[in-house]
Amino acid sequence: MRESTKLAAVTVAALLGVGAAGAGTLEDVREAGELACGVSEGVPGFSNPNSDGVWEGLDADVCRAVAAAVLGDADAVRFVPLASKQKVLAVSSGQVDLTSRTTTWTMKRDSAEGVDFTAVVYYDGQGFMTSAAAGISSATELNEATVCLTTGTTTELNLADFARANNLTLEPVVFEGKREAVEAYASGRCDALTTDSSQLAAFRAGFADPSEHMILPEVISKEPLAPLVAHGDNQWKDIVTWVVYGLITAEEFGVTQANVADMAANSGNPAVQRMLGATGDTGGFIGLDSTWMVDVLSAVGNYGEIYDRNLTSTLGLERGVNAQWNEGGLLYAMPIR
Amino acid sequence: MQETTVTFQPTEPRPAPVHQTKAIAWLRSNLFGSWFDTLVTLALTGLLLSFVPDLIRWLFVTATFQGDDTVCRENGGACWPFIIEKFQVLMIGVYPQDLAWRPAICAIALVVLAWLTYWDRIRGVALIVAWAVLPIFALIMIGGAFGMQEVDQSVWGGLMLSIMLALVGVIVSIPLGILLALGRHYGSPAIKVLCVTFIELLRGVPLITILFMASVMMPLFLPPELVINNLLRIQIGLIMFSSAYMAEVVRGGLQAIPKGQSEASLSLGVSPVYTVAFIIVPQALRHVLPPLIGRCIALFKDTSLVIIVGLLDFLGMIKSAALDTDWLGFQAEAYVFAALVYWLICYSLSLYGRQLEKRGPNART
Questions:
Q1: Which end of chain A is more exposed for a tag (fewer CB within 10 A), N or C?
Q2: Interchain pair B319, A86: CB under 8 A
Q3: CA distance B85 to chain A (A)
Q4: CA angle B362, B363, B365 (to 5 degrees)
């Protein structure tokens, strides 16, 4: 009996000991020496292991950027593939420090589900793809068209709203899975295919001749994708938020992976000096080194470089609404000072 | 009254069989035996002719064996360089490639042991010990210990992960299933209720539910500081599910053993434990060998469900490989390869099962 009591006491003590270590995510990450980052199990251009088993994509690079800022090492990331149903719970229950997994920022998730969104890294939205031969240049010309889509998603509702708002008669052809919908579109069953535009780009790149298909400019729904952290750790949320803003700001001021060292030493722009730690200590505001953005940018490059590397050069995805605010896009990073 | 004597009258000797070429005789008796057989043969031949030539053309004739994705897209057939390029990630997932020799050694050990087992070169206690030690050896080699660089379980993947989940699942769930079956068959009322509850509860829900429970729900109940590895939770879920089915299979075997056997054994003074362990269970297991092997195959195939809880097993890596931005549009090749690998493994298992049955009741197990 006494032995088992002792054992129980030791177990409880061990649990409490583990509990005491969970003070803040920043300390936990530093102690572990690596960032546990939840990504998707395979979304082209966002996160997917390449042939060498290395995770590639915009979401994966956001993980690397945070690891570079916090640990000074962009490779100190433990990528944890998460299924769609796990993506919110994994971060709210502490299995991962950060989820960077094509997750739409919605009110319910941000409030009721115990997570906080940081900053939008990609403005996605439902778009249309048609065959280039059809000669259509706008979705409003799709009257009387058949449209392939998947069942049971908001995609269907968005399409109905769009048709009603524009006085179009669209005939939806509904499929159970995305693959089936794409195959049906490819075989000429429908005039157009509709789903999130980032995915349309991936499907288009997979066709035998991508130039035969075009993605129409209209985006008919809002899908702001943002990394998320557990609710309640404000410092950690600040870190992830400002790393994303830092990536966007760096592009705005022309700081790239190649010139970051030079800019840190010689730039005369006060905004760049502040960001790269030449004057002041912006890193200190969020508990990091003053050279936090130098570490980030020399590891992964700025937002434009990340976007180009993962989405434009591979999937042919243009910047669109994901351009900088002064170039007609929606990217508007808060000032770093 | 007149007595009749019946004399033996031999029947007419049958004519010697007409000499026939083997192939034609086989065709006639098997494919064109009756008008119905002929009809079925013709219909099936027509069906095969309608797609086999296209399949062969796609698989081999217009297929690409060397080159990159642009060559593949030009040729239009199957793109095998894609599989070659992706081979390593399909086998070990995102496991660090400079440490790939570690899973490779485990794979060699597995193949050697399977070979020895199949050809009956290793028997009895040695066989059981070898199979019990193999997963431990694999865990140490793949996970890293004793000074080897540690590799976190979140990067284990590919075929390696599928085989490991299945192997550990089978090795743990068979003994567990036997215990559950014995508990249900011979246990005291309390034990019996426990065993029946466990078995029926797990058999009553689909595997997907258990996987979700293990992966998504369990972290909600546990304190946030106590993080049990996702892979371990999934493995435990698989073992529990599988052992419930194994238990029912074994119970079928136990019921087939006549009561006289245990009565005879007990009356000879053999203790009840020895009676069950050395007289009842070995015979029961031999009876249920085919369904037991069937459960093992099913468990291996069930591991492909773990992708829904974010583990990139073999099928998960297949899906992910087909989504690589450099190789978009080659998912058919990926799935053909997956089918081939699954078939090879499952067929070898069922061959081994047949081999075991052939050794017959007099052979040692």
A1: N
A2: no
A3: 6
A4: 125
Query: Nearest Cβ partner of A207 from B76, B215, B329?
Result: B329
DSSP code string of A210-261: GGGEEE-S---S-EEE--EEETT-HHHHHHHHHHHHHHHHHHHTT--TTTHH
- pLDDT score of A93: 83
With cut-offs at 50, 70 and 90, classify the pLDDT of residue A255: very high
When pLDDT is averaged across residues B290-295 and rounded to a whole number, the result is 90
**pLDDT surpasses 60 at A3:** no
Name the minimum distance, in Å, from the CA of B154 to any CA of chain A. Answer: 6
Which domains are present in chain A?
24-123+225-327 (3.40.190.10), 126-221 (3.40.190.10)
pLDDT for res B228? 74
Backbone phi and psi for residue A120, each to the nearest 5 degrees, phi listed first: -70, 130
Structure confidence at residue A187 (pLDDT) = 87
Determine which of A51, A82, A99 to mutate to test the interface with B (most B C-beta atoms within 10 Å). A51
A-chain residues near B309 (CB < 8 A): 83, 86
pLDDT at position B224, please?
63
Q: Is the pLDDT of residue A15 over 60?
A: no
| Whether the predicted pLDDT of B33 surpasses 60 | yes
B215: chain A residues, CB-CB within 8 Å: 83, 86
**Tokens coding A219:** 């985006």
Estimate the share of chain A in helix, then strand, then coil, as percent rounded to the nearest 5: 45, 20, 35
* Whole-number Cα distances in Å, B357 to A206, B175, B352: 49, 20, 9
Which of B323, B324, B327, B331 to mutate to probe the A interface, most A CBs <10 Å?
A: B323
Contact B155 A314 (CB under 8 A): no
**A216-246 pLDDT tens trace:** 888 888 889 999 999 989 999 999 999 999 9
pLDDT of B227 > 90? The answer is no
For B154-358, CATH number out of 3.20.20.80, 3.30.565.10, 1.10.3720.10, 2.120.10.30 equals: 1.10.3720.10
> Is the ipTM of this structure higher than 0.85?
no
Q: In the predicted model, what is the mean pLDDT of chain A?
A: 87
Domain boundaries, chain B: 26-73, 96-150, 154-358
Strands (E), chain A: 35-40, 48-49, 55-56, 77-82, 98-99, 115-117, 122-124, 126-131, 146-150, 171-175, 192-196, 213-215, 223-225, 228-230
Contact flag A42-B216 (C-beta cutoff 8 Å): no
Mean pLDDT of B311-322: 89
Taking an 8 Å cut-off on Cβ atoms, the answer to whether A315 and B325 are in contact is yes
Chain B residues touching residue A89 (CB < 8 angstroms): 216, 219-220
Q: Is B351 in contact with B97 (CB distance < 8 Å)?
A: no
B163: confidence class by pLDDT, cuts 50, 70, 90: very high
Interchain pair B219, A90: CB under 8 A: yes
Whether the pLDDT of residue B123 is over 90: the answer is no
